[in-house]
UniProtKB/TrEMBL annotation:
<comment type="similarity">
    <text>Belongs to the aldehyde dehydrogenase family.</text>
</comment>
<dbReference type="Pfam" id="PF00171">
    <property type="entry name" value="Aldedh"/>
</dbReference>
<dbReference type="InterPro" id="IPR016161">
    <property type="entry name" value="Ald_DH/histidinol_DH"/>
</dbReference>
<feature type="active site">
    <location>
        <position position="267"/>
    </location>
</feature>
<dbReference type="InterPro" id="IPR029510">
    <property type="entry name" value="Ald_DH_CS_GLU"/>
</dbReference>
<dbReference type="InterPro" id="IPR015590">
    <property type="entry name" value="Aldehyde_DH_dom"/>
</dbReference>
<dbReference type="InterPro" id="IPR016163">
    <property type="entry name" value="Ald_DH_C"/>
</dbReference>
<protein>
    <submittedName>
        <fullName>4-guanidinobutyraldehyde dehydrogenase / NAD-dependent aldehyde dehydrogenase</fullName>
    </submittedName>
</protein>
<feature type="domain" description="Aldehyde dehydrogenase">
    <location>
        <begin position="33"/>
        <end position="492"/>
    </location>
</feature>
<dbReference type="InterPro" id="IPR016160">
    <property type="entry name" value="Ald_DH_CS_CYS"/>
</dbReference>
<dbReference type="InterPro" id="IPR016162">
    <property type="entry name" value="Ald_DH_N"/>
</dbReference>
<keyword id="KW-0560">Oxidoreductase</keyword>
Amino acid sequence: MTTLTRADWEQRAQQLNIEGRAFIHGEYRPAVSGATFECLSPVDGRLLATVASCDLADAEAAVADARATFDSGVWSRLAPVARKAIMLRFADLIEQHGEELALLETLDMGKPISDSYGIDVSGSARAIRWNAEAIDKIYDEVAATAHDELGLVTREPVGVVAAIVPWNFPLMMASWKLGPALATGNSVILKPSEKSPLTAIRIAQLAIDAGIPAGVLNVLPGYGHTVGKALALHMDVDTLVFTGSTKIAKQLMIYAGESNMKRVWLEAGGKSPNIVFADAPDLKAAAEAAAGAIAFNQGEVCTAGSRLLVENSIKAQFVPLVVEAIKTWKPGNPLDPATNVGALVDTTQMNNVLSYIQAGHDDGATLVAGGKRVLEETGGTYVEPTIFDGVNNAMRIAKEEIFGPVLSVIGFDSAEEAVAIANDTIYGLAAAVWTSNLSKAHLTAKALRAGSVWVNQYDGGDMTAPFGGFKQSGNGRDKSLHAFDKYTELKSTWIKL
Ligand code: NAD
């Protein structure tokens, strides 16, 4: 819990001493080229920091250092129980610096401070801690062999991992990768989004303070097409883990094929259906969840419930409930603890969202809530949570990931039709079903081609459950013990006795 007021946060923002350099082998350093880029706040357009703009030369240095550190065994050969103890300290330090990290996150990408502190920072510490706690409780296998043989099936760290992450949950997406990658003994190079590099840069020092050896976690801020591409094409990166758009995810697979066939694990985009049947147990609760599913984090959520599928027999009753519920999601200054909708990450993203709102009008959908940029006088990038009714699944606002607070409402008449519309997308990240009929809930959940399905709620889950996508939403899974698969190679050692 934090009891800081908006004035407190504003004051702390003035006092922040923001680090913008890259971090290699335990120390901050400028990009080899000396290049920097400006990190602007979407809250009000203020200049936050100049940040190192890394490129190929920095990637070379970071990968060489990560490889040498891995080969030295200083982390990779440490007993799991020892790695656990250090990572638990790392999680503690993230929590102890929670207010500072939350402030950096909010200033950098515009999300409400209450969420940065209560969701992102605490979720990040939890991700590190959960993986740390798991690592000394996992056993390898002994194969079923003949009497005079011994077959060992063991897991080894892959080696050098590059983690390229997005801007919508900068610290948390990084932590979902760092937790299992570090716990299993790898060396990691973290490449945060150029739109939100500050928390990644900050936690590099916290890792050192916790006792993670230098070179185990290097952080390279910079653009995707420069340093991101250099890491993805690097011949000495063993595994590339990514969260971001489907477009870039596909490009990374090409880079892997063009280079060393590094393993590529992708968490990509979504266009998630939220299906409300007429027999939903509580229509008001379903409407409130539908509003939250598109307004939370300004709709900049890979699992945003951006397609609301409503059974036609209740649609006239249900849509006004959603319109009412979305009024409680109001854009405001994200440093105010009462704000629940902050600024979109930058002007480019805001204009993208506004162009989709225009596409909704152009394609004949009916605007029933929001639809405008607001708080322009602040210098920030704020857009009202927006609802279009009368959408069909072929319209652009129903097909393409907007990654902003724009909801498309689509009617249906039967469970079969609902599932057909829900699955009629290139994505398969998440879906939800609202019904009080147990069989309908299970049958619909089974029929949905998505990595997460929620019943009578939206966005449930925790570190114990895998998270990831079917189809073009990605491959592999973050969270849960299954995530360890991405960071380990299986080895069979066969011994003649
Ligand atoms: P993005 O794909 O534009 O960028 C993601 C990262 O890739 C950034 O660090 C960027 O610098 C880097 N990058 C860009 N071009 C690159 C290149 N050519 N080579 C190497 N790296 C490159 O995505 P974004 O706009 O930062 O994030 C939004 C997207 O992330 C949405 O599509 C959203 O659905 C997705 N996302 C998915 C999940 C999930 O778990 N499935 C979670 C959060 C966000």
